[in-house]
Specification:
The chain has 423 residues and is an alpha+beta fold. The chain is built from eleven helices and 19 strands.
C-alpha cells in the first residue's frame, strides 16, 4: 500500500512540475515577444535612423540648439546669410554668435559659402554673405568659397558624426521668420558621412578663404548627441535616408513618380518648363535632339501627368509671388493645367520657398532643389528622400493647413481645360 501511494505521489509531483513549467513558459512568452520586438525596433533605429521635422519658425530654434550642443564638429553648406546690424535680435545674428561660442569650446567649424559670379544679380547677396562669414574668421572658423562658376544652392548643417539638417531655409530674415520653408533633422551616421564627403568635394572645388590648412579636410568627428536628446517629435525611418544630390535628384525622383500608385503632392518656389534649352551664364547649351525633352523638369511633370492618367491623385502648389517669379509660375501653371495636373496657390500673405515632394503614403523628398533647368542640370543641390508614413502624413497636413490656400492658381479659372475629360 505504501509503495502504491509512493508511486501516486511521484506521478502527482511530475504532473505538478510539468504544469508549473507550462505556466511559466506561457507567462514568459509575451515578455519574450516584447523583448524581441524591442530588439528589432532598436536594430531598425540603428540601421535606418530617425528624423524630426522643423518647418518654418521651428528651424531657427533647432539650428541654435544643434550648434550649442555640438561636441566636435559643425559643417555648413551656406548659400545665403546676412548679419543685421539694425536688428540685433535677428535669428541669423544669433547663429553667428553661436558659431563663435562653439569655437570657444574647441568645436571645429567648417563652412563652404556660395560667392560665385554665375549670376550678375548676385552681387548684393554675395556682399551680405561675405560680410557674415568674415565676422567668423578671427574665431578660427575654416571657410572656403565655392567654385565661382557653379551655383552652390545647398542648405545643409552637419553636426558631429551623426546629425544632418537638410532644408530649404537660407540664413536670412525672410526664411527664418516669414516664409513657408521645410526642414528635417536626420540621425544616421552613414547619411552624415555621405554629406561630409559631399562637403569635402565642394570645398576641394573651391578656394580657401580663411583658416584653411592642407589637412583641414581630413578629420573624423566624434559621436554626437542622439536626436532624442534634442527633439521631442522623433520618428523612426522605415529605410535608410537617401541623398539626392545634384544630378541624382532627377533620376531617383523620376523612379519614385513612376512607381507611385496613390498620390503625388509637389510644393515649389520655382517650377519652370521649357520649349527649348535655356541660355545661362552667357552661353547657349546644346539644343535638344529631335524628340529629346528640353529639360528634366519637363520629364518630371510629364511623368506626373501620366500618373494622373492612371488614377494617381496629383497636385502642385506654387508660390504666387510678385514680379518675375510670379509671372514664371503663372506661365508654367497654365502648362501644367493643360497636362491635367491640378495647380493650387499657396497662401497669398506668405511666400512659399519650400521644395517638397510627397508620394503615396510614405515617401518624403525635401531640400534645396528647385524644379528648374540650372538646379537639375548644372547646380550644386542637396535633398533627402525619407520613408515613413507618419512623416508623410505630417507633411501632407503641413501642406493642407499651412502652405496652400486651396484655391486654383490665379489665371487658370478661365482655362478651356478646366472640364477636360482627364481632369
Amino acid at each position: 500500500m505504501s509503495r502504491s501511494r509512493s508511486r501516486i505521489s511521484c506521478v502527482t509531483y511530475k504532473v505538478q512540475m510539468a504544469f508549473t513549467v507550462i505556466v511559466a513558459f506561457l507567462l514568459f512568452l509575451p515578455f519574450s515577444f516584447a523583448h524581441t520586438a524591442i530588439a528589432q525596433e532598436s536594430t531598425q533605429v540603428q540601421n535606418e535612423g530617425q528624423c524630426s521635422v522643423a518647418n518654418n519658425r521651428d528651424y531657427a530654434q533647432l539650428v541654435r540648439k544643434l550648434i550649442q550642443n555640438a561636441n566636435s564638429s559643425v559643417c555648413i553648406l551656406l548659400y545665403q546669410a546676412r548679419f543685421y546690424e539694425e536688428h540685433p535680435n535677428s535669428m541669423t545674428n544669433y547663429f553667428l554668435t553661436d558659431l563663435i561660442d562653439a569655437r570657444k569650446r574647441n568645436v571645429d567649424v567648417r563652412i563652404v559659402a556660395d560667392t560665385g559670379d554665375w549670376n550678375p544679380q548676385n552681387g548684393l547677396k554675395n556682399d551680405y554673405l561675405l560680410n557674415f562669414i568674415d565676422m567668423l574668421t578671427t574665431s578660427g572658423c575654416m571657410i572656403w568659397e565655392d567654385n565661382q562658376s557653379i551655383v552652390s544652392h545647398e542648405k545643409v548643417i552637419l553636426i558631429d558624426d551623426n546629425l544632418s539638417l537638410v532644408s530649404s531655409h537660407n540664413w536670412a530674415f525672410y526664411s527664418t521668420d516669414l516664409n513657408n520653408e521645410v526642414s528635417v533633422l536626420v540621425d544616421n551616421k552613414d547619411f552624415n558621412k555621405k554629406l561630409r564627403d559631399y562637403f569635402i568635394a565642394r570645398a576641394d572645388e573651391g578656394v580657401p578663404r580663411a583658416n584653411v590648412t592642407c589637412d583641414s579636410l581630413q578629420w573624423e568627428p566624434t559621436p554626437g548627441k542622439a536626436i532624442s536628446d534634442l527633439c521631442t517629435n522623433v520618428l523612426p525611418l522605415d529605410t535608410p535616408p537617401q541623398l539626392l544630390d545634384n544630378r541624382d535628384f532627377y533620376t531617383k525622383l523620376a523612379q519614385e513618380i513612376l512607381d507611385s500608385s496613390k498620390q503625388i503632392t509637389v510644393v515649389q518656389r520655382s517650377l519652370n518648363l521649357y520649349d527649348s534649352r535655356p541660355r545661362f551664364d552667357g552661353q547657349d547649351y546644346p539644343e535638344a535632339c529631335p524628340g529629346e525633352p528640353a529639360s528634366p523638369t519637363n520629364v518630371l511633370t510629364e511623368l506626373i501627368a501620366a500618373a494622373k492618367h492612371r488614377g494617381v491623385d496629383t497636385k502642385v502648389i506654387l508660390d504666387i509671388g510678385e514680379g518675375d517669379t510670379g509671372g514664371d509660375n503663372l506661365s508654367n501653371a497654365k502648362k501644367l493645367d493643360t497636362m491635367g495636373i491640378t495647380v493650387l496657390e499657396d497662401s497669398k500673405t506668405v511666400q512659399t520657398h519650400a521644395k517638397l515632394v510627397l508620394i503615396d503614403d510614405d515617401t518624403v523628398v525635401l531640400g534645396s532643389t528647385n524644379w528648374t533647368w540650372p538646379a537639375l542640370e548644372t547646380g550644386n543641390e542637396t535633398s533627402v528622400m525619407l520613408k515613413n508614413s507618419v512623416l508623410n502624413n505630417t507633411y501632407l497636413k503641413y501642406v493642407d493647413n499651412t502652405v496652400t490656400s486651396g484655391t486654383v492658381y490665379t489665371g487658370l479659372n478661365d482655362s478651356i481645360w478646366r472640364d477636360a475629360e482627364f481632369k
